[in-house]
């Protein structure tokens, strides 16, 4: 019964779902444009149908707002694999995540953003350690969400994997908020060092509030072969054309259908099994939205109050 | 398509990524300024491991290895690995080695790449009184991360 309902809803929302999840699940945070409701001054004059229409629009707006949270709060969505689903566990994890977020600000950032993490380290002399780098992967759901930062320090490529909800993390600073063309940037390991070198003491760049997250459309050249991965088969958008480096055989192999997988875009079941249904998403985000909003408001107030600097006497 | 290629695809050969473990015959990069290490790296003949001093035969961070370098055998400490590490432990682009003498003191006087903080603890744990003293390696590091 439940299955048939989900499938029916799926076919109803098919186009929305494709746009929402498949094509720009991780890429776009731009608000989807929705027809805005006009504020009715005299509600008794409008007909019942009109009232219904306005209600629908308002409902849609609320839905869009909720569903747009899936970009910034990606880790609140559980692992879509049905074997790993457990509603109680997910709810408990969400509670713990919110509890952690009330102690430490975990800002919005994406693969390609520059992030600095300050964490307690029992091995360091000051018991604190800071690492700054470009985020090359964001993975995992719930409390197991983690991200990898990469940087070049003293001519040596370094990567550190952090748990997002690690209790030892003291502060996460977003130095530059932006996205890249791909969902994973592991090709930076095979790129020249200047593409993953960032000064450790970079100042954070601020953007006007409410603006869309910029996408850095840089195409990275790769070092000559050998590479760690056969990048020509991976269909990466952020890599500069590499056909001149490849042998004829590798070029031929890379064009095989089994690597390009042209059938995948028609595979509705694959999409279904890799995404969380809209109804579940709405349920999850409406549960956490209020608390997150509260935290955000509190932070905003604190930031405002902290910004005031007492004038000092000169001379 | 020719038959061998078809066979390879159907059998799914060589599809897993490399583990990048440090085992026997792994080539390492010397990252200190010892004379022998600098020469070996400049000649393009980096040292290779022929013994790992633990029971697994796989070298992890802070482990002692015996390497063949320029026709000599030397001991060294692994100070940075390519392999995937635990959370919050840095992973490097190369397998880094610092050459030491038998008593644990390094041959060089400076390490020119960053060293993981966890190595402080590991080296202290491995040092015993009357045994080899590995903490001198920490003293010659230029930067920790």
Automatic annotation (TrEMBL), chain A:
<dbReference type="GO" id="GO:1990904">
    <property type="term" value="C:ribonucleoprotein complex"/>
</dbReference>
<dbReference type="InterPro" id="IPR008991">
    <property type="entry name" value="Translation_prot_SH3-like_sf"/>
</dbReference>
<dbReference type="GO" id="GO:0005840">
    <property type="term" value="C:ribosome"/>
</dbReference>
<dbReference type="InterPro" id="IPR001857">
    <property type="entry name" value="Ribosomal_bL19"/>
</dbReference>
<keyword id="KW-0687">Ribonucleoprotein</keyword>
<keyword id="KW-0496">Mitochondrion</keyword>
<dbReference type="Pfam" id="PF01245">
    <property type="entry name" value="Ribosomal_L19"/>
</dbReference>
<dbReference type="GO" id="GO:0005739">
    <property type="term" value="C:mitochondrion"/>
</dbReference>
<comment type="similarity">
    <text>Belongs to the bacterial ribosomal protein bL19 family.</text>
</comment>
<dbReference type="InterPro" id="IPR038657">
    <property type="entry name" value="Ribosomal_bL19_sf"/>
</dbReference>
<keyword id="KW-0689">Ribosomal protein</keyword>
<protein>
    <recommendedName>
        <fullName>Large ribosomal subunit protein bL19m</fullName>
    </recommendedName>
</protein>
<keyword id="KW-0809">Transit peptide</keyword>
UniProtKB/TrEMBL annotation, chain B:
<protein>
    <recommendedName>
        <fullName>Large ribosomal subunit protein uL14m</fullName>
    </recommendedName>
</protein>
<dbReference type="GO" id="GO:0005743">
    <property type="term" value="C:mitochondrial inner membrane"/>
</dbReference>
<dbReference type="InterPro" id="IPR000218">
    <property type="entry name" value="Ribosomal_uL14"/>
</dbReference>
<dbReference type="InterPro" id="IPR036853">
    <property type="entry name" value="Ribosomal_uL14_sf"/>
</dbReference>
<keyword id="KW-0496">Mitochondrion</keyword>
<dbReference type="GO" id="GO:1990904">
    <property type="term" value="C:ribonucleoprotein complex"/>
</dbReference>
<dbReference type="GO" id="GO:0005840">
    <property type="term" value="C:ribosome"/>
</dbReference>
<keyword id="KW-0687">Ribonucleoprotein</keyword>
<comment type="similarity">
    <text>Belongs to the universal ribosomal protein uL14 family.</text>
</comment>
<keyword id="KW-0809">Transit peptide</keyword>
<dbReference type="Pfam" id="PF00238">
    <property type="entry name" value="Ribosomal_L14"/>
</dbReference>
<keyword id="KW-0689">Ribosomal protein</keyword>
